[in-house]
Design a protein that fits this description.
heterodimer, A: TIM Barrel, 36% helix, B: alpha/beta, Rossmann fold, nine-stranded mixed sheet, three-stranded mixed sheet, 6 helices, globular
């Protein structure tokens, strides 16, 4: 039986000396230093991580080069899937990221601005390596196409760019379907409202996306502990749960999360 | 022709293995995984290197048609390798290419794309309504003996695929996996020297490394 995946997310930034460093933030801001990406990846692998997501949060040429070095180093040490995101805008970017040892690329803004990138990437490298990432924001106004009820209010989800700083007016569910039809092999669903809060994933958002598409969905943002992973797998039917800070700050180990899920009959790789 | 040596000379290699470079994708992980398993690895598209190797790996990500077309110049060389008894190991799309054809290559009303036909059969798509691709860690159920599967029964491997192999001969199935249906996750030809995994051993953690070690062991006996 296919297991639910537990994925630590590692945001790679540059420290003052230009070396790769991991920082963790709240609401995509207030970043705090948490460690060396390669060492973290090795430790998470030991603890039973099913996969990694690395995000280059510098969005700079230097950051990109550093990220590729990190990917090479991790790919040489750790034999589980690596997804790499941040600043990917062309098929050339996809190619060099895969060549460095990534198995998938995660694309956010690059695909919103030029949706054909999804088709091009899927055609050249296969759908399995094209992950479309959305940074969703709850909107309680008239601008959406698909509404869900949250606490008695009608809500839609908007795709944002630049880590939530810029709206697009695009409905997340419409975009998810379009991305799938263009060849995306997986959807990575972040929530601006939940990021860093540790009070649980955006369940209505995750559930709505899972219902809208047939491709696997990675839930992200808001995980504060094993109970939130359990919720997003059993209530929203996500295929994978991603978390950053709870693992980085050693609040919960991956092994502990998996044990919790296994005891509650959620299939995990032990 | 490009030949890149990626060997790690720090240890005595158990076998020399060639990874066929017929296009794009991540060859780094499979190379490092094979090295970790004790092989001396060469990534190449030079058929002469195939003939000298103890074993050949046909990697693969992406679409069947593109894969077959990219590998087409090497078709005769790969068939010769298989015929000579040298181990030939197809991974993911590389495994699907060992079969005769695929529904995937058959799209857009174009004629069927011919695979290598080393393990006769067809690759078919998972049913509508199932989440596709089948992506993630799933269990291996070993059905028959083959040196490749030593020590991996009941363990988990990492899969990413939308099509699965249906060999004509049921005995070609070495292991199966359950994704709303049982499908062959490891196949082998009758002679035993041509085999493939639908999953990625180079991405399947310790279980995957065990399979790569088994492969290197098979090669070392050549």
């Amino acid at each position: 039986m296919l297991t639910k995946r537990i994925i630590p997310c590692i945001d790679v930034d540059l420290d003052e000396d230009g070396n790769p460093a991991v920082y963790t933030g709240v609401h995509f801001e207030d970043l705090e230093y948490t460690g060396d990406p390669v060492e973290m990846a090795k430790a998470y692998n030991e603890s039973g991580a099913d996969e990694f997501v690395f995000l280059d949060i510098t969005a700079s040429a230097e950051g990109r080069e550093t990220m590729l070095d990190v990917v090479r180093d991790v790919a040489d040490e750790v034999f589980i899937p690596l997804t790499v995101g941040g600043g990917i805008r062309t098929t050339e970017d996809i190619k060099e990221t895969l060549r460095a040892g990534a198995d998938k690329v995660s694309i956010t803004t690059g695909a919103l601005e030029r949706p054909e990138l999804i088709n091009e990437g899927a055609r050249a490298f296969g759908s399995q390596c094209i992950v479309i990432s959305v940074d969703a924001r709850r909107r309680f106004d008239e601008g959406g196409e698909h509404y869900v009820e949250i606490d008695g209010e009608s809500c839609w989800f908007e795709c944002t760019k630049k880590g939530g700083r810029e709206g697009t007016g695009i409905d997340v569910l419409e975009w998810a379907r379009e991305a799938e039809s263009r060849g995306a092999g997986e959807l990575f669903v972040n929530s601006i409202d939940k990021d860093g809060t540790k009070d649980g994933y955006d369940l209505p958002l995750t559930e709505a996306v899972c219902d809208a598409v047939d491709t696997p969905v990675i839930a992200s943002s808001g995980c504060g502990g094993p109970e939130h992973m359990h919720e997003v797998f059993t209530e929203a039917d996500a295929d994978a749960g991603l978390a950053a800070s709870i693992f980085h700050f050693d609040e919960h180990s991956i092994a502990e999360v998996k044990e919790y899920l296994d005891e509650r009959d959620v299939p995990v790789r032990l | 022709m490009s030949t890149v040596s990626a060997s790690d000379s720090s240890e005595q290699a158990l076998a020399s293995v060639v990874v066929v470079d017929y296009g794009l994708g991540n060859l780094r992980s499979v190379t490092r995984g094979l090295e970790r398993a004790g092989a001396d690895v060469e990534i190449t598209d030079d058929p002469e290197a195939f003939a000298d190797a103890d074993g050949v790996v046909l990697p693969g990500v992406g679409a069947f048609r593109e894969g077959v077309e990219n590998a087409d110049p090497l078709r005769e060389d790969l068939l010769e390798i298989a015929d000579s008894g040298t181990p030939l190991f197809g991974i993911c799309l590389g495994m699907q290419m060992l079969l005769t054809t695929s529904e995937e290559g058959d799209n857009d009303g174009e004629s069927a794309v011919q695979g290598l036909d080393l393990v006769p059969g067809t690759n078919v798509r998972f049913a509508d309504g199932q989440k596709v691709p089948h992506m993630g860690w799933n269990e291996l159920d070993v059905r028959r003996d083959h040196p490749l599967v030593e020590g991996v029964d009941g363990r988990y491997a990492y899969f990413v695929h939308s099509y699965y192999a249906v060999p004509d001969d049921a005995d070609a199935t070495v292991a199966t996996t359950d994704y709303e249906r049982e499908f062959p996750s490891i196949v082998a030809n009758e002679a035993g020297n041509v085999f493939g995994t639908q999953f990625h051993p180079e991405k399947s953690g310790e279980t995957g490394l065990q399979i790569l070690r088994n492969f290197v062991e098979i090669c070392s006996q050549e």
